[in-house]
From TrEMBL:
Domain Nucleolar protein 11 C-terminal intervals: 361-673
Record gene name: Nol11
Name listed for the protein in its UniProt record: NOL11 protein
A cellular component term, taken from the record's GO annotations: nucleolus
Record GO biological process: maturation of SSU-rRNA
Domain Nucleolar protein 11 N-terminal residues, every copy: 1-287
Lineage top rank: taxon: Eukaryota
Primary localization: nucleus
Length: 675
């Protein structure tokens, strides 16, 4: 989420439609989807083709699948039947009872009560609403009728279970939230009459001069709910907003307008809000604390909230800098994180002692401090005993340093930043400006370390690093301290036109073999530059390029940037990749020596990416012709070699089988004829 990198993507065939939200099975780490109402698909993260994933055709239409961390997936059918996934997979074509008749399911939710999963769903028929409570493992189902409300109807539902009681919250069209209590009944064999549930008013969205039209409702805790909807002010256009309400004291706790509009849906998971704002998924972290009347009406005394740090507001929604706020006695503390600052952070909203300055307040106080004081205080801050929010604190420290670098172009604490990145478990999303500042300062060593250590670098930054590495001169790199561990063991560099070549040939290719495989005649004076025998770049540049090869990426997002790479730089990079490919192929295990050396898969993937991005240009450039020709010849030789191996694969397997059958104490001479 933080850097908008898709980690997996699967598609159904043309004409098929996913008919309910995909869920994750927490126990098996598998994904579960339903397409065309009845076709169940189950697959794992490493599976590539959805069409080859597990498939089961069910006997009834599926409404929704709910996944519980400890209770497993539950499948709710449109007819009201409920099955656990395990029971369903034992006989996918089993008959599913039709519980509801002429009713339409409007909402469903799954919960755990002790060791038993409970599924609750609401239905509508001719303006009447019904509530069903199902315990699938006990084959138990209870039906209730919801008390009608004059001139208004339910818009959305949410629920939670506490002390054997289901609390169902209903958001009605009259801008009010009603509460319905449903006791979890003990299962009896006797048929029970349909019971009508009474409801009580929990909350009314009455704000002087405005009317809140809610569209989505989630429960935060026993005293707080969040509502997504539109705020209507007389004489003005309605404005969408996210608001948090205190149900205990009937007060609006806080709200924020959403100027780009939403989809009307709000999700809440692990103290984070998820909502679509404009065209992006926005994540807002929150923390609920004990409710008090003073906090609810905003009358906390100043002495009761000593810590109002600079880290706070809803700036996520404007893509501004991260600011986090804590108030020790506040009933609801909200912490908004920018999209680029989510992945590696944990919930750092905590109770702060009055005598202790928060990280935000400390950084605010150091904003105009001298360089020596700033770095001394930041070192002391990082040297504190490990705490749950230490990683986030270090990210704030790096952000403070990069902010000063941007304000003062002459300031750049290279050694301090290197020390932090090398000794701390950071990520790009914790300090998103760090690599941008390093690129501006042309700090190749820091960029190399970041590429090797950060798991979540956006493709745009990866491309910027690649372009910077290819464009910098070899002479300038000679004066830069670069980690050479990934190249020192295998790179052969030309010095004064003398070539250092490797004579070992283990994988079926040498320069002399198969000269007729390519019709292109290449002048001898140019062959040495493109035949992969010597490294086309110096040691320092090779080490930097290796760091790029190690960086994670998504092809869809990287390709548009790679197409902007200048042709000469693309050719140089391809020559280096070809050199690495030849080096890998010299060894039987296709593994380069050294620390953090590129793997054969990384090399091949980047070669394919580069050719996809620049193939048309390279075909037209005369200087790329011999490189493409040699690459084609080498790959063809590899294919021929492995084809020959495949021919004797059967004989080798037979030999292996005979070795297993042979008695250890029996002496024999056997002749195997390979045809």
């Amino acid at each position: 989420i933080s850097d908008q990198k898709p980690l997996g993507c699967w598609s159904v065939k043309h004409g098929q439609i996913l008919t309910c939200p995909v869920v994750c099975n927490f126990e098996t780490h598998e994904y579960i989807a339903v397409h065309d109402d009845k076709v169940l698909r189950i697959w794992k993260n490493e599976d590539i083709n959805l069409d080859k994933a597990f498939k089961a055709t069910l006997s009834a239409d599926v409404y929704r699948i709910h996944s519980l961390p400890e209770g497993g997936p539950l499948v709710l059918f449109r007819g009201g039947g409920v099955r656990t996934l395990d029971v369903l997979l034992e006989a996918p074509q089993q008959e599913i009872e039709k519980v509801i008749s002429d009713e339409v399911i409007r909402w469903s939710g799954a919960f755990m009560e002790g060791q038993q999963p409970v599924l609750i769903f609401t239905t509508e028929k001719d303006g009447d609403f019904f509530v069903y409570v199902s315990k699938p493992k006990l084959s138990s189902l209870h039906k209730y009728k919801l008390e009608q409300q004059e001139s208004s109807k339910p818009l959305c539902f949410t629920a939670h279970i506490t002390n054997q009681t289901v609390t169902l919250l209903c958001l009605y069209s009259n801008d009010s939230v009603y509460q319905v209590l449903i006791p979890l009944q003990q299962d009896t064999e006797e048929e029970e009459e349909e019971e009508t549930l009474s409801k009580s008013l929990l909350l009314n969205f009455s704000v002087p001069g405005t009317v809140l039209k809610g569209t989505s409702l989630v429960v935060l805790d026993k005293d707080h709910v969040a509502v997504l909807g539109s705020l209507a002010v007389p004489g003005k256009e309605p404005r969408e907003c996210l608001s948090i309400w205190n149900t205990k004291f009937q007060t609006l706790q806080t709200s924020k307008e959403l100027p780009l509009g939403t989809s009307g849906q709000l999700w809440c998971y692990e103290e984070k809000f998820f909502l679509i704002h404009g065209k992006v998924l926005t994540v807002i972290m929150y923390k609920c604390e004990t409710s008090s009347l003073a906090a609810a009406v905003g009358k906390l005394k100043d002495s009761q909230k000593p810590d109002v740090s600079s880290f706070v507001n809803w700036n996520t929604l404007e893509d501004e800098e991260l600011v986090v706020s804590f108030q020790s006695q506040e009933s609801v503390a909200l912490k908004a994180e920018s999209k680029m600052n989510l992945r590696s952070r944990r919930s750092t909203v905590a109770k702060v002692q009055p005598e202790t300055l928060s990280v935000g307040q400390l950084l605010l106080n150091l904003k105009d401090a001298s360089t020596y004081v700033l770095e001394t205080e930041l070192r002391q801050l990082m040297s504190k005993a490990p705490t749950p929010d230490l990683q986030a604190t270090i990210g704030c420290v790096v952000t403070a340093l990069t902010d000063r670098c941007k304000r003062n172009p002459k300031y750049y604490p290279q050694n301090f930043l290197l020390e932090i990145v090398e000794t701390r478990d950071l990520s790009y999303s914790l300090c998103p400006d760090l690599m941008a500042v390093a690129l501006e300062k042309k700090d190749m060593h820091l960029l190399q370390i970041c590429l090797e250590r950060f798991p979540d670098i956006p493709e745009e930054i990866t491309y910027a690093c690649l372009k910077a590495f290819l464009s910098i001169s070899e002479a300038h790199l000679q004066n830069i301290d670069v980690n050479l561990d990934s190249v020192i063991c295998y790179v052969d560099v030309e010095f004064e036109d003398k070539e250092v070549k490797t004579e070992i040939v283990e994988n079926g290719f040498s320069a002399e073999m198969d000269q007729d495989m390519c019709d292109t005649k290449i002048p001898k004076e140019t062959q040495s530059r493109s035949d992969g025998a010597s490294c086309p770049v110096g040691l320092q540049k090779a080490a930097l390029l290796n760091a790029v090869l190690h960086s994670a990426y998504t092809e869809t997002f990287l390709l548009p940037h790679l197409k902007n790479l200048p042709a000469q730089q693309a050719i140089l990079f391809l020559r280096y990749l070809y050199y690495l490919y030849v080096k890998c192929s010299e060894k039987v295990n296709t593994t380069l020596p050294g620390i953090r050396s590129p793997t054969i898969n990384q090399i091949m993937d980047w070669m394919c990416l580069l050719l996809d991005a620049h193939f048309t240009v390279m075909v037209m450039l005369p200087e790329a012709k011999e490189l493409l020709s040699n690459l084609h010849k080498f790959v063809r030789a590899q294919v021929r070699f492995y084809s020959e191996l495949n021919k004797i694969e059967g004989s080798l397997r037979e030999l292996q089988r005979l070795n297993h059958l042979r008695e250890s104490q029996t002496y024999s001479i056997e002749v195997l004829e390979i045809i």
